[in-house]
UniProtKB/TrEMBL annotation:
Keywords: Signal
Superkingdom of the organism of origin: Bacteria
Signal peptide: 1-23
Name the UniProt record assigns to this protein: Lipoprotein
């Protein structure tokens, strides 16, 4: 976790920025035995809409993705609200931290031995899912990480903002998604970033690529 992210989870992920079966755990139910009692099937009831949210109940997620060999990008995202309080008619605020860990060296290794990774562009787009099929994009955020960082001592290069942990990272707070149409039951947050990473520490030779991290979030009607 980068030094600028004290509130993070983060995390945040996820997942993270990612379940176990209980079948047979308690043995056969007594109702599975043969019985002469006549039963009546209950009337069918409407199933609640289900959205594959990766938020925990307290509103956080931690997601990881490899951007190169043993070079792991972490997305930690969190909200001050609980997951089930992301109502259609509410202001929904979230914060996040993005950084990278070079897993080829120990955490306590000198920073010079770690591969440097920079981020030159970040966009976050929210796309909704509704029962009617109407699609909205209630959030389109596009920033230059060097300008958007909250770290007054952030390190950067022509490749963008340094995001190698522990000296680098990008944190953005209080990003707001406003009210949504009443039949919205989920949205997907797509984090798209352009990152440049060293193949070998200290070489100054970088590989640039676009990385996507998606975060599904359930939306609930206020009852």
């Amino acid at each position: 976790m980068p030094r600028l992210a004290t509130a993070s989870v983060i995390a945040l992920i996820a997942l993270g920025l990612s379940g176990c079966s209980t079948a047979g755990l308690f043995g056969d139910s007594p109702l599975s035995a043969a019985s002469d009692v006549e039963t009546t099937a209950p009337a069918p009831t409407a199933e609640p809409l289900v959205f594959n949210s990766v938020f925990t109940d307290m509103g956080s997620v931690h997601q990881n993705t490899m951007v190169a060999n043993e070079l792991q990008l972490q997305l930690d995202m969190w909200t001050e609200q609980k997951t089930h309080e992301w109502f259609t008619d509410a202001q929904k605020s979230f914060s996040f931290v993005i950084d990278v860990t070079d897993m080829t060296v120990p955490v306590e290794a000198p920073f010079a031995s770690k591969r440097q990774v920079f981020m030159s562009s970040l966009s976050v787009t929210a796309t909704t899912t509704t029962t009617s099929g109407v699609v909205e994009t209630p959030l389109v955020l596009s920033v230059n990480p060097v300008d958007a960082t909250l770290d007054p001592e952030a390190l950067s290069s022509p490749y963008g903002l340094l995001i190698t942990s522990p000296k680098g990272g990008l944190q953005m707070v209080n990003n707001v998604i406003g009210p949504l149409v009443d039949d919205t039951y989920g949205l997907i947050l797509d984090f798209s970033m352009i990152v440049s990473s060293e193949a070998t520490p200290g070489t100054g030779s970088y590989v640039t690529q676009t990385i996507h991290q998606t975060v599904p979030v359930a939306i609930f009607p206020r009852v």
